[in-house]
Each structure stands twice: as C-alpha cells, then as structure tokens.
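Example complex used in Figure S2.
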Amino acid sequence: MPVVSSPTQIKREVLSYLPVHIQRLLYNLKVEDYQQLEEIRLRCGQPLVVRIGERELAVSREGFLTTLLPQGYRVEPDDICRVIASISDNSLYAFEEDIRRGFITIPGGHRVGLAGQVILKEQSIELMKNFGSLCFRVAREVKGCADPVMPTLFSASKGTLHNTLIVSPPRCGKTTLLRDITRRISEGSPRPGLNVVVVDERSEIAGCYQGVPQLDVGPRTDILDGCPKDIGMMMAIRALSPQVVVTDEIGRQSDAEAVMECIHAGVNIISTAHAESLEELRQRPILRKLMADGVFKLIIILSRRHGPGQIEQVIRWDAS
Amino acid sequence: MMLKAIGMVMIIAACGVWGLSGAKGLEKRQEQLGELKAALGFLEKEICFMHTNLSLAMQKTAQFTQFPARLVFAVAARELGQKKGVTAEEAWLKGLQAMRQQAQLQPKDIELLASLAAQLGVSNASEQHKALAALQEELSLQQQKAQRELDSNHKLWSYGGFIMGAAIVLLLI
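Predicted assembly (493 residues):
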C-alpha cells in the first residue's frame, strides 16, 4: 500500500517543530525508518525515544538509533518548552480546548500528546501546565488500504451501504482503514458518492488543523472536529443531512443511543471499536446490545500479525 | 571680542538645547508609557477575546501603535513569524531591545516591560489577561509618576539649560 508520508514530508511537518539540535539527531534516520516512524517521545530528563514499526529505540547524542535507552539523548526542560512554544505558535491560549483534551493537532494531521500538571475545576479539566512529556504521533494516510473490503460494504442486491463496525486492538490500523473507507464512499468508488459526516471527536480521522482536514476524507465529507460522538451524530442528522455518519471508537451508552437515532433516521453508520475478537466484543454490554439489535451488518476484524491493517476476518449478517 | 561673543552665545545655546531636550525627554517618556499601555490593551483584547495567534496579534498591535512603541511589537512579530523556534520570551526581549535605543524610557520602565516576557503566550486566556492587565496597571502608575516628574521638572529643564550656560559663561569671563 502506498504510504503517503514521505521522509521529506515528515521532516517538514513533524521534525520542524523540534529544537534544531534534536532535528539534526533525527535527520540520520534511514528512508525506511521514516516510512515506519509512528511516534517520537520527549520526556523531561529521559532519553529521546522513537517508535519505528514494532521497535522502540532511543536516539543517541550522535544521532544513531539504539536499543540501549541510557545512551539516548537526554531531553532537557528547555526542549519541552521550545516544542510547546513551537506547536502552539507561542499561543497556548488559542489551544485551551485542545490542551484540555490532551493533545494538539499540527498541520499534516499529526498529533502531539501532552502530559503535565492537570488543574481540575468542578470535576473537569480546567487546564494543563508544567508540561513534562510530549508524544508526536505521525498521522499515516494509506490510500488504497480499503480496497479489499470495499466490495463487501455494499449489499449486492440493493446496492445499499451496510452499517459497519471495524474491530481491533489499538495500533492495528482501524482509523487508517476507516479514513480510506470514508474517502472512497465520499469520492464515489465503486458506487455513486454519498454525503458523509465524520464526527471526529479526537481529530484522528481527518486530522483537522484549524478546521481544515489535513488528511483526504473525500469531496462529499463534512467534519465535526473535536465534537463528542453522541452530540455530533445528532447535530449531523439535524443540520447536515448525511447519508453516512462515520465515527471512531464507539463504546459509551450515549454513543449507542446516538447510533440508534442515526439508524432510525435512515442514516448509515460506519464506526470502530476496541476489541481483540468478536468474542471480546460481545463481552462489552453496550456493543453486545447493538449487535443483538442487528445494527451492524458487517464487522471487519483487524490485527497486526503481518503489520498494521491486516484484515483477519470479515463477518456479514446480511447475505443479500 | 567678536569671537568671545560668538563663543558665549554657543555655550548658552548648547546648554539651552541640552536642557530643552531633557524637558522634551520627560514629555516623551510620559507619552510613550501611555502609548505602550494602550498597545498592551490592544494586545490583551487580541489574545483574550479573539484568541489570535501571538505573532499575528503582535503584528496587528504594531499597526495600531505609534513609533517607537511600535518597534517592540513589530520586531517581536517578525521574530515569531519566521518560525525558527524562537520563543515568545526571546521575541519580546528582542523587541524591547530594539525599542530601547529609540525610546525615552528609563531602565526601570524597560525592566517592567521585560517582566512580561516569561508569561507571554504560555498560559490560558485568563492567565494571559491577568499578566497583561497587571502590566498595564503598573505602566499606569509609572505614567502617573512620569507626569508628576514632568510637572515639577519640566520648567527646571527648559530654563535650567540656559541658566547653566549663562553661569558657565560668567565663570569663564
């Protein structure tokens, strides 16, 4: 599958937010390392760590990758301050809501997870300050990864879209597959294009930066960025008249109620859920109820057995 | 005799000009403190109500501010706009340095303005509001002091230069 993020793109979109001396350390990575780069972790006083595919490696002071963490470049408090200044354009006040959610999305759709001192007010997060660690998560857009499942998404007889649930443990490519399915449905291949609303609570599907999607989700797609799933689904039905609602990681009671509202309004749902298998999925009461009610006609189970996005099983309840 | 007269006139004129520039400096300091206070009010609104990114907020503030106070915002906006990893603190201090050479401010005024550097852009809107409002309040007090100084010393500087020039001439005769 063509991985869209090239080394040049990663250097421009991700590394440019790091202090210059850290950028230099990471410039030594090989092309294939860049292509598999998933995370860059900066923890105050701890080694600089990168996750490349399945490997977690420290970056040495000379810019070499090593499995020996003590040999890694030790991240200074000033490095954290500079990265925070850089990702927020020196304007943390403009990212209050993002900081409350625990991450800032940067151009390119990449996310920077934040950890620090959390200040609570009336049981909700007021602000986060004194940042201690940061995690850059590289957004991966794998165009074409939905090709094998596209024919199964539509009913053979009626040509209608099945309500679909993508299931896998974390880091198996659920969101990447969901994004590509969204793009294909919106573009209109293989069936005519449909109006899609993406309720992107964690800005992972479309990777919006200042409201503009940074990842390709198709031409007929509206995005409710940062919006809670249940509220977003209701908003979408009322205001955007979608044919399909796409959302990530359903699991709460309120999500299930909103999903039922969509179904009753004649809107198709494509979503994801965390689980290793169908059995594990059935152990979760809310998802079990949705499945028992026949909401989802198609379940796609992914694993990481041969790398992210491995399609393990496609289960259909609708034979038509 | 003619040369002596010319010399006397030159001494008195030079001392007079020095005194007048001192008086002008007092006036300018008071004006510049007021201008900076107003600019910080503008910046505060951009940050706290509009949530404008700092580089753009600085740029807009510079557009609505008179020289030399404009320099601090324009230089800081330029530094931040280059996106070369410069922090707001560094950009603000560079702006102050640029303004310092052109303004009639005293070191304590610059010190006061520099105290904002560490707080600029690094907290939520409510904290930014507190920091900017506190600085405006302190600048207001400085401005009041500068006004009192202007009232009491303006005439002294204006005439004092000429008087001193005349005294020097008398001593030399």
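Chain B has a mean pLDDT of 90. Chain B has one domain: 29-172.
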